[in-house]
Amino acid sequence: MEPFADKIREMILSNNAGPENLFEVILILVDSKGTRPDKAVISPRKISEGDNVSYVFHINHIMYHYNISDNNKLSLFEKGIIRNDGIMDIVILSEELSRWYFDGFLGKTLLMRSNIKV
Protein backbone atom coordinates (compact mmCIF):
# COMPACT_ATOMS: atom_id res chain seq x y z
CA MET A 1 0.00 0.00 0.00
CA GLU A 2 1.21 3.49 -0.82
CA PRO A 3 2.64 5.42 2.18
CA PHE A 4 -0.01 8.16 1.90
CA ALA A 5 -3.02 5.80 2.06
CA ASP A 6 -3.18 5.71 5.87
CA LYS A 7 -3.00 9.51 6.06
CA ILE A 8 -5.84 9.92 3.54
CA ARG A 9 -7.93 7.30 5.34
CA GLU A 10 -7.40 9.10 8.66
CA MET A 11 -8.35 12.45 7.10
CA ILE A 12 -11.56 11.02 5.63
CA LEU A 13 -12.63 9.28 8.83
CA SER A 14 -12.00 12.40 10.92
CA ASN A 15 -13.65 14.69 8.34
CA ASN A 16 -10.48 16.78 8.28
CA ALA A 17 -9.29 17.97 4.87
CA GLY A 18 -6.02 19.29 6.30
CA PRO A 19 -4.06 22.10 4.66
CA GLU A 20 -5.14 22.89 1.12
CA ASN A 21 -1.75 21.95 -0.32
CA LEU A 22 -1.43 18.56 1.40
CA PHE A 23 -3.28 16.41 -1.15
CA GLU A 24 -4.07 18.76 -3.98
CA VAL A 25 -6.78 18.16 -6.55
CA ILE A 26 -7.55 20.12 -9.67
CA LEU A 27 -10.20 19.70 -12.32
CA ILE A 28 -9.12 20.27 -15.89
CA LEU A 29 -11.63 20.75 -18.69
CA VAL A 30 -10.11 19.30 -21.87
CA ASP A 31 -11.55 20.67 -25.11
CA SER A 32 -9.65 19.11 -27.98
CA LYS A 33 -12.30 20.16 -30.52
CA GLY A 34 -13.05 16.51 -31.30
CA THR A 35 -9.47 15.56 -32.18
CA ARG A 36 -9.17 13.21 -29.18
CA PRO A 37 -11.66 10.84 -27.56
CA ASP A 38 -12.08 13.24 -24.66
CA LYS A 39 -15.78 12.42 -24.16
CA ALA A 40 -15.05 9.07 -22.54
CA VAL A 41 -14.26 7.35 -19.28
CA ILE A 42 -10.58 6.42 -19.15
CA SER A 43 -8.92 4.29 -16.49
CA PRO A 44 -6.94 6.10 -13.78
CA ARG A 45 -3.22 6.49 -14.30
CA LYS A 46 -0.35 7.01 -11.88
CA ILE A 47 2.11 9.61 -13.14
CA SER A 48 5.58 9.85 -11.62
CA GLU A 49 7.92 12.67 -12.61
CA GLY A 50 11.02 12.75 -10.44
CA ASP A 51 9.88 13.12 -6.84
CA ASN A 52 6.35 14.11 -7.89
CA VAL A 53 3.58 11.49 -7.87
CA SER A 54 0.04 12.18 -9.02
CA TYR A 55 -3.00 10.24 -10.09
CA VAL A 56 -5.23 11.27 -12.96
CA PHE A 57 -8.53 9.97 -14.23
CA HIS A 58 -10.74 11.24 -17.01
CA ILE A 59 -14.53 11.35 -17.31
CA ASN A 60 -16.22 13.15 -20.23
CA HIS A 61 -13.95 16.15 -20.90
CA ILE A 62 -12.89 16.53 -17.24
CA MET A 63 -9.56 15.30 -15.89
CA TYR A 64 -9.39 14.82 -12.14
CA HIS A 65 -5.76 15.28 -11.18
CA TYR A 66 -4.64 14.42 -7.63
CA ASN A 67 -1.17 15.38 -6.43
CA ILE A 68 0.05 13.35 -3.48
CA SER A 69 3.67 14.49 -3.30
CA ASP A 70 5.05 16.47 -0.39
CA ASN A 71 7.69 18.13 -2.53
CA ASN A 72 8.36 19.08 -6.13
CA LYS A 73 4.79 20.28 -6.60
CA LEU A 74 3.58 20.96 -10.14
CA SER A 75 2.86 24.65 -10.77
CA LEU A 76 -0.45 23.71 -12.37
CA PHE A 77 -1.86 22.97 -8.92
CA GLU A 78 -1.41 26.61 -7.87
CA LYS A 79 -4.01 27.56 -10.48
CA GLY A 80 -7.00 25.49 -9.42
CA ILE A 81 -6.73 23.58 -6.16
CA ILE A 82 -9.69 23.44 -3.80
CA ARG A 83 -8.99 26.22 -1.34
CA ASN A 84 -9.95 26.36 2.33
CA ASP A 85 -12.54 29.02 1.49
CA GLY A 86 -14.37 26.41 -0.62
CA ILE A 87 -13.60 28.03 -3.97
CA MET A 88 -12.20 25.93 -6.78
CA ASP A 89 -11.35 27.16 -10.25
CA ILE A 90 -11.51 24.74 -13.16
CA VAL A 91 -8.53 24.91 -15.48
CA ILE A 92 -9.63 25.01 -19.13
CA LEU A 93 -7.30 23.66 -21.79
CA SER A 94 -8.17 23.97 -25.47
CA GLU A 95 -6.67 23.49 -28.89
CA GLU A 96 -3.03 22.35 -28.98
CA LEU A 97 -2.51 22.49 -25.20
CA SER A 98 -5.51 20.23 -24.57
CA ARG A 99 -4.25 17.70 -27.15
CA TRP A 100 -0.77 17.74 -25.59
CA TYR A 101 -2.16 17.23 -22.07
CA PHE A 102 -4.59 14.49 -23.14
CA ASP A 103 -1.86 12.63 -25.05
CA GLY A 104 0.48 12.95 -22.06
CA PHE A 105 -2.19 11.50 -19.78
CA LEU A 106 -2.69 8.51 -22.05
CA GLY A 107 1.00 8.10 -22.77
CA LYS A 108 0.20 7.93 -26.48
CA THR A 109 -1.63 9.81 -29.22
CA LEU A 110 -5.08 8.65 -30.27
CA LEU A 111 -6.63 10.38 -33.23
CA MET A 112 -10.31 10.29 -33.99
CA ARG A 113 -11.20 8.74 -37.34
CA SER A 114 -13.00 11.95 -38.30
CA ASN A 115 -9.66 13.83 -38.11
CA ILE A 116 -7.68 11.57 -40.43
CA LYS A 117 -7.30 13.16 -43.84
CA VAL A 118 -7.65 10.60 -46.63
Question: Describe it for me?
Answer:
The structure is a single chain. Strands 2-3-4-1-5 form a 5-stranded mixed beta sheet. The chain has one domain. The mean pLDDT is 77. The protein is built from 3 helices and 5 strands. It is an alpha+beta fold and 118 residues long. The longest helix has 12 residues.
- SSE order: HEEEEHEH
Strand content: 25-35%
| Structure annotation, total helices | 3
Rg estimate, integer Å? 16 Å
Which key phrases capture this entry?
30% strand, alpha+beta, 118 residues, 5-stranded mixed sheet, 21% helix, single chain
Compose a concise summary of this entry:
The chain is of the alpha+beta class and 118 residues long.
Note the topology:
Layout: H1 5-13, E1 24-31, E2 41-49, E3 52-59, E4 62-67, H2 77-80, E5 91-94, H3 95-106
Parallel strand pairs: 1-5
Antiparallel strand pairs: 1-4, 2-3, 3-4
